[in-house]
């Protein structure tokens, strides 16, 4: 009896039925062919693009190239936005506000403490865990009541609608040293700071209270119970707008954000994104029609129209 070679040829055939394919592979997963023989591809492994681990839970990865062909990857997490380029991971979490100018906004805690409280009636700090962040760019009088505070990035822990306390983020130049002599003293002089986009939930949460849940899920004026109302985790959506990138928080609780890739390449260690409204205003455009709340962002191809879903009416 003659021998029959039962070795299937290399490659996967998907255009015809299994019967028609005969002795051919018709389906495969994590398989490659080497020397005409099928072999498995290694599975997934944890990857950290730099020595600095990401903060927050990543739920968005957006690969991108600039106009000169440089490769980069943007990561959206529950607390940060990162851009990896050339194997280096940079924090590009966008600013939520333009520069905020305050006068003597700092108040020391009780005598012997190093607590600093910021008072800003127009602040955008949300009650998040971990705390959201601000960047202080300049302080006219950084030493008062025995405490010295420097410019840099800080965690801002919510105290009230007008106040929050500061914790320095290491490696950003921020620091609070010394202790209060008398306590409850104000200072700082002219201070310039900007608020970063607030953190979002790292996982799905159950919400309750007045206004939680979808319309008509209960009767008017009735507080929702802690069952059945789920608040979605932070999920960024991103799309390329030419060389640059538009982004939104998928839950529809914030406006559009903009990342200028040329500016990032020029200063990767200091660059941060901003709201699209801040960018349009900076180039002399009219930002009045940009919605305050948007859901998913999509850029149409090839005409590059910016389309948003689940948004408030423009303006």
Helical residues, percent: under 10%
Described by strand count, sense and barrel closure, the largest sheet is: 8 strands, antiparallel
CA radius of gyration: 26 Å
Q: Based on CA inertia axes, which overall geometry fits?
A: elongated
Can you count the helices?
Answer: 3
Number of separate strands: 25
What percent strand?
A: 25-35%
Nutshell version of this structure?
The chain is mainly beta and 315 residues long. It has helices at 18-21, 261-266, 276-282; strands at 31-34, 37-40, 58-65, 71-77, 81-85, 88-91, 100-103, 106-108, 116-119, 132-139, 143-144, 147-149, 152-158, 163-168, 176-178, 186-187, 190-195, 205-206, 230-231, 236-241, 244-249, 257-259, 274-275, 296-299, 306-309.
What does this entry look like structurally?
There is one protein chain. This protein is mainly beta. Among the domains are: 100-195; 202-232, no CATH class; 233-309, no CATH class. It is 5% helix and 35% strand. The chain is built from 3 helices and 25 strands. The chain has helices at 18-21, 261-266, 276-282; strands spanning 31-34, 37-40, 58-65, 71-77, 81-85, 88-91, 100-103, 106-108, 116-119, 132-139, 143-144, 147-149, 152-158, 163-168, 176-178, 186-187, 190-195, 205-206, 230-231, 236-241, 244-249, 257-259, 274-275, 296-299, 306-309. The chain has an 8-stranded antiparallel β-sheet with strand order 7-17-10-13-14-9-8-16, with no helix packed on it. A 4-stranded antiparallel β-sheet has the order 3-4-5-6, with no helix packed on it. Strands 20-21-22-23 form a 4-stranded antiparallel β-sheet. 24% of the residues are buried.
